[in-house]
Amino acid sequence: MGQVTSLSHKVYMDVSRSHVVFIAGKRGSGKSYSMGVIAEGVSDLPEEVRKNLSIIMLDTMGIYWTMRYPNKKEALLLEDWGIEPHPLNVRIFTPVGFFKEYRQKGIPTDFPFSIQPSEIDASEWLLMFDIHQTDPVGVLIERVVNELKESGENYGMKDIIDAISGDERSEKTVKDAAENRFLLAEQWGLFSKQGTRIEDLAAPGQITVLDVSCYTTLAGGDQVRALVIGLISEKLFLQRMVSRKSEEFKDIEKKTSLFVREEEGQEDKEPLVWLVVDEAHEFLPNKGKSAASKSLITILREGRQPGISLVLATQQPGKIHSDVITQSDIVIAHHLTANIDVEALGALMQSYMREGLGKQLAILPKESGAAVVFDDTNERIFPIRVRPRYTWHGGESPSAISKWEKKTIEI
């Protein structure tokens, strides 16, 4: 970029294998927009390829439901790029406690989402409630949850509360404090004994938007969102590990057996999953941990083999876990100005740069979508401009002046 000839070359992303894609940039630089473009690109693939992929967008800000509407507001820009605005058939999941309210208010949503309390470990409850393991309340919660898990039966929030109430080893004040935590958690509208199956989220050829923006203003909402992201990541990893073993066994059987019986109505493979997470520094902090840290770090380090890709975006790369920096094989850097953030990315790219990242970012044009890309496979860095989206972008900053008024106001 910066030379006219740079814009004549199209740049594509390889989605045939697993990647960790790291998108960084200051507020309003186009991170969320670029994530939407990646999802659109997968949706545009031929059917025989698309059916082997699935995208789950963990929407922390409530901006990706707009992908089901065409991008009419940038129609002229799209025309310059030779792109026609059109909608995508995205499936939108909302926490079960907010699903009915969203429907009544006319907020787009398709399916309720819930988590089984029996899937949550005692340590995750303590992390969400911000209670130390040695605190009397923490000791009680850990004992009760572990006992329920050892029973091997599915249980709900009421079962946990009843078990706390019936505990004979704790004082009443301790039991009351523990009960209150779980009564509060019930109000999050997130838990049910049935839970949502991971197969419903990771559907072949489908873009799924899980809208958890309802917890943005909730006290402790960051940990609730982290819990959702952590559990989904863990389930996906376990499911893909099992699927990968089955796929590998079938490949071995085909290559080593003299007689391989063709299966009638052969089942489709479980799709390779692309997990998209915005504001990733909240869930993978470089100091401390969240309820999602363990699962996301596992995918960062080991997700390639089972076929799970991660797309992580942040406006603070200097505050994100070091594994994100070291494990990312594709980095898209939009405009950055803070030294701590430029240095964090520069440490990753320095082996392939003749000059500092700061200088590379400084010469980028101010146009929307301008970025520097680091590709670990080709071991090179080059500037790009991300194409405009053909679906409506819900993450644009609001303005007190309409676009029509901007054109008519003289400065």
Structural overview:
- It is a single chain.
- By secondary structure, this protein is of the alpha/beta class.
- It contains 15 helices and ten strands.
- Strands 4-3-5-2-6-7-1-8-9-10 form a ten-stranded mixed beta sheet.
- Strand 3 (91-95), helix 4 (96-105) and strand 4 form a beta-alpha-beta unit.
- Helix 5 (122-129) packs antiparallel against helix 6 (136-150) and helix 10 packs parallel to helix 11.
- The longest helix has 36 residues, at 221-256.
- It is globular.
- It starts with 19 loop residues before the first strand and ends with a helix.
- The relative contact order is 0.19.
- Residues 1-6 have low confidence and may be disordered.
The chain-level mean pLDDT equals 86
Radius of gyration: 23 Å
Give the % helix. Answer: 25-40%
Distance between the termini: 30 Å
How would a crystallographer describe the biggest sheet?
10 strands, mixed
CATH topology of the largest domain: Rossmann fold
The total count of strands amounts to: 10
Keywords:
single chain; 411 residues; alpha/beta; Rossmann fold; 2 domains; ten-stranded mixed beta sheet; 15 helices; 13% strand; globular; disordered N terminus
Layout: helices, strands, pairs:
Blueprint: E1 20-24, H1 31-43, H2 47-50, E2 53-59, H3 75-81, E3 91-95, H4 96-105, E4 111-113, H5 122-129, H6 136-150, H7 157-165, H8 172-186, H9 198-201, E5 207-211, H10 221-256, E6 272-277, H11 293-302, E7 308-314, H12 322-327, E8 330-333, H13 339-349, H14 357-362, E9 370-375, E10 380-385, H15 403-408
Parallel strand pairs: 1-7, 1-8, 2-5, 2-6, 3-4, 3-5, 6-7
Antiparallel strand pairs: 8-9, 9-10
Helix pairs in contact: 5-6, 6-8, 7-8, 10-11
